[in-house]
Amino acid sequence: MASSGYTYEISLKLVRARDGSVPTDPASLTFEHVSHDDILGIVERMRNGSGLDSSASAAVAVGTKLLGEVMIRDKKNPLFDPLRAGLHEFITSLKQKTAT
């Protein structure tokens, strides 16, 4: 079955606790996410044009794309109502700042 976009495997692993300790058996989370955009390309544009450091650029790009895609797919869910206008404005501004 063909995908309607790019399919990503998203992984998150705890590498250091708040107190600085390193877990012996780190907690982790992995899931798949489909996006209509090339998220890796967006991360690169963010790194080149946002003024943020490399890690912060990746976090903003990935977080924004994950949230935005879920909001698009579940557009009738009132959970997202308070975010819609602000997120749209933020993404528009971000695209202007990071355009290549």
TrEMBL record:
The beginning of the lineage is:
Bacteria, Pseudomonadati, Pseudomonadota, Alphaproteobacteria, Hyphomicrobiales
Originating organism: Sinorhizobium alkalisoli
Q: Which InterPro entries match?
A: DUF3861, DUF3861_sf
The entry's protein name is DUF3861 domain-containing protein
Q: Which domain of life is it from?
A: Bacteria
Give the matching Gene3D superfamilies. Answer: Protein of unknown function DUF3861 (3.10.20.850)
